[in-house]
Design goal:
heterodimer, A: 305 residues, alpha/beta, Rossmann fold, five-stranded parallel beta sheet, globular, B: 453 residues, alpha+beta, Cytochrome-c3 Hydrogenase, chain B, five-stranded mixed beta sheet
């Protein structure tokens, strides 16, 4: 690529964590920033939406999009970025799979609004749902790639600083961004045994041995159903992997894959196994619920009524 | 979040009618979150100012049905700048509901984790979000007012800023497993201890962090001095203040909720579990974030503020001698309470001194490397629990109800920035009048910018 890469960093409804991860390149930021001609970056630069609108279509080399479509404005901004960017990069798990906030798809929009504005213990008056000069809340959270074409997925909640730097460097050199085809288990250095589990434990039970495989100890570690790339950060912190990078290459449904994994090693009565999954959606789809075929069920039923 | 007048140039003016015009700033930049500002003018006079927070994700609802121990993984995703406070308030709420007392070492490790976050967030707020306005001056072109310009023009200061943020974030990663969305605090303690060699390394790094913090504090003092006219005249609003204190002493990790009136009287001080006695939320039609206020004073009279200035106002003293000295210097100059919105940055730099000093003190404590970091036995039960901590931008409250197997049946969250939404709108109202009607920016005494764009 000749000269600097023209880039926009866009935030739909999100937490800023992917941008914090970019900043967490620390001194390496001084190498990455000069490669970019930043045209839009709400988190750190004062360009406005109008500045983004004024760019010619295809005028950006890359549009990094953090977050999910929780409002109509998010949908608009996603489509706008798609128009402007030759490469659209889904920046993080919300942008790639819906992320944690897509668990909200378990509920109807009215239920969400009611709890926050009409029922919360600390809310006074309980008679107003905000709507003036505000974009509408979407009925459910879709995957961003159901709305527009996504060229590159930067996975993880958040993607590691190194993965972000690699993506920027690849963008700059015109090379494709490659994802690991391995799983977290392949990256994890804990000692693993081929054995069945007689009893599963919840994350707070006992004190896990820091050397042994967490699944072998009965913890619901999701490493086997999760794409590698982070270096097994959570297992290294003596904590089960929660699956934040989404399913490995070639797997569409992370939860289905994990149910297979856990079911295959569970040496117990089916009733006991069910007790382990008291909240299957939250436990197995915590970062990918918008990707689940179940995700649209409730809002679809509502539409029929 | 912070209020600024300097982005107005980037706003869009649309003439609805000849007499009525609207200035729309879309979006507000250099913050975590999603907001817009609308200023309505009638014949050149301000008729209305709205601060619109344009998104909500409804964590309080979709926590229902989740395993309570997963809330400390879910809720950090509310904020990527401040995931540690959510992680910790969450685990404290669950432990309160289940009547679990984690070992002392776990409590100290959690406090260290929170301090790491205060260090990185405060440094980020000062250097990346706020400093460009002061170092380049309010009339610099919008496209130049950012950290990239600071990196290009004064690389020495930029390197120090980056190094300080790095110390904070990496301390979080060491203790929390990950800096962004940590995982180690768990009902019953922590998932891992701090190793002795890690402790030794961090003791050294904290000395360096203190040098960088002193540099930052001196830079802030200079900025405050240079912009004295702005600080004392622009956007000054009288509000209530709230923050945690431990017998009057500043405390990020625990304590009772103190409320101070605009005149400086301590109006209330309640334990965290009784937060609903003082905390109330007003839903305003033009904002997805609620306006939090002091319940007993009503709305809008009871609009209060949280975060650095509020905490500095409500406390009697800081923890470390260095920060205490800075607090005295602050009070001698601006009094108590200080209502100057721009003094938030000064207060933030005082808290930074305290956070680094306190982190060092914790690292010197032999308990910090104790192997007694997690209870073996933790049992869920039906209950209601409250967890509070101070997030960088204000008091954070998580309140969960759990059933007998430990599933969340209901949740209420009081999120840090929301303490300030009502006050931000109030100060924007004042600033819009000051700038648009009175042209105060033409009369203020301003320094020659440290960086010319």
């Amino acid at each position: 690529m000749a000269g600097k890469a023209k880039a926009a960093f866009v935030q739909l409804s999100s937490c800023w964590g992917c941008h914090q991860s970019l900043l967490d390149l620390h001194e390496k930021l001084l190498d990455v920033i000069p490669l970019l001609d930043i045209k839009y970056w709400v988190a750190a630069v004062d360009f406005k939406v109008d500045d983004l609108k004024k760019l010619p279509n295809g005028g950006l080399d890359a549009g990094f999009v953090e977050g999910l479509c929780r409002t109509e404005e998010d949908v608009h901004l996603l489509k706008l970025t798609r128009e402007k960017a030759r490469a659209l990069i889904a920046f993080g798990s919300c942008s790639s799979f819906g992320g944690v906030p897509s668990i909200a798809n378990l509920f109807l929009k009215n239920e969400l609004l009611e709890r926050k504005y009409l029922k919360a213990e600390t809310v006074v008056d309980k008679n107003t749902v905000p709507s003036e000069n505000l974009p509408q809340i979407t009925n459910f959270v879709p995957r961003n790639d159901q709305m527009v074409k996504v060229d590159v997925y930067l996975l993880g909640c958040p993607p590691t600083s190194q993965e972000i730097a690699n993506a920027v460097l690849a963008l700059f050199s015109g090379k494709p961004i490659e994802h690991s085809i391995k799983t977290i288990c392949d990256e994890c250095e804990r000692k693993k045994e081929e054995k069945n589990v007689k009893e599963f434990r919840r994350d707070f039970e006992g004190k896990p041995d820091p050397e042994k495989c967490l699944i072998n100890q009965g913890y619901l570690c999701m490493g086997a159903g999760t794409r590698a790339g982070c270096g097994a950060q959570c297992p290294n912190a003596n904590h089960p992997c929660k699956g934040c990078s989404g399913p490995p290459e070639g797997v569409a449904d992370q939860a289905a894959k994990l149910i297979g994994t856990f079911g295959g090693i569970a040496d117990m009565e089916p009733k006991k196994l069910l007790e382990v999954f008291r909240d299957p959606a939250g436990q197995l789809y915590s970062f990918t619920y918008a990707s689940s075929p179940l995700s649209k069920l409730r809002s679809a039923n509502k539409d029929e009524k | 979040m912070k209020s600024r007048t300097s982005t107005i140039k980037g706003g869009k003016e649309s003439a609805d009618a000849k007499k009525e015009t609207e200035i729309k700033i879309e979006p507000i930049t250099r913050l975590e979150g999603h907001g817009e500002i609308r200023i309505k003018l009638n014949k050149g006079k301000i008729s209305d100012v709205q601060f619109n927070v344009t998104s909500a994700r409804f964590f309080e609802k979709f926590l229902e049905g989740r395993l309570a121990e997963d809330a400390r993984i879910i809720t950090p995703r509310i904020c990527g700048i401040c995931p540690e406070p959510h992680h910790l308030a969450s685990v404290k709420a669950v432990e309160d509901a289940w009547v679990v007392n984690p070992p002392l070492a776990a409590r100290k490790l959690r406090e260290l984790l929170l301090l790491g976050k205060q260090i990185s967030s405060h440094a980020l707020h000062l250097y990346v979000l706020a400093a460009p306005d002061f170092l380049l001056g309010p009339f610099a072109p919008p496209e130049a007012r950012n950290i990239v310009t600071i990196v290009n023009k004064i690389p020495d200061a930029a390197k120090k800023a980056i190094e300080l943020m790095k110390h904070g974030q990496e301390l979080c990663a060491t203790v929390g497993g990950k800096a962004i969305h940590p995982v180690t605090a768990i009902p019953g303690g922590m998932t891992k201890p701090l190793k002795e060699e890690q402790r030794d390394e961090w003791l050294k790094r904290m000395d360096r962090a203190m040098e960088l913090t002193e540099f930052t504090y001196q830079l802030l003092l200079k900025i405050m001095q240079d912009y004295w006219d702005v600080i004392t005249k622009v956007g000054v609003i009288e509000t209530y203040y709230t923050g945690l204190t431990n017998n009057g002493e500043h405390n990020f990790y625990d304590g009772s909720i103190r409320v101070m009136s605009p005149s400086g009287r301590i109006e209330a001080e309640v334990p965290a579990q009784r937060y609903t006695e003082v905390v109330a939320e007003k839903v305003v039609p033009h904002c997805y974030a609620t306006h939090i206020f002091y319940r007993k004073a009503g709305y809008p009279d009871g609009i209060w503020r949280g975060g650095p200035l509020a905490r500095i106002n409500v406390v009697e003293k800081m923890v470390t001698p260095r920060a205490n000295e800075a607090l005295k210097e602050f009070r001698a100059k601006v009094g108590r309470p200080c209502h100057a919105t721009f003094a938030y940055h000064w207060a933030r730099s005082i808290e930074l001194l305290d956070a680094v000093g306190k982190a060092k003190k914790l690292l010197e404590d032999p308990d910090i490397v104790s192997q007694d970091y997690k209870l073996e036995k933790v049992e869920p039960r039906e209950g209601c629990g409250v967890g509070v901590v101070e997030a960088p931008r204000g008091l954070l409250v998580h309140n969960y109800w759990t059933d007998k197997v430990g599933i969340i049946t209901k949740a209420n969250l009081i999120v840090a920035t929301n303490h300030n939404i009502g006050a931000i709108e109030k100060s924007l109202n004042i600033i819009a009048r000051q700038v648009i009607e009175d042209k105060i920016h033409e009369k203020l005494k301003l320094p020659k910018p440290m960086i010319s764009a």
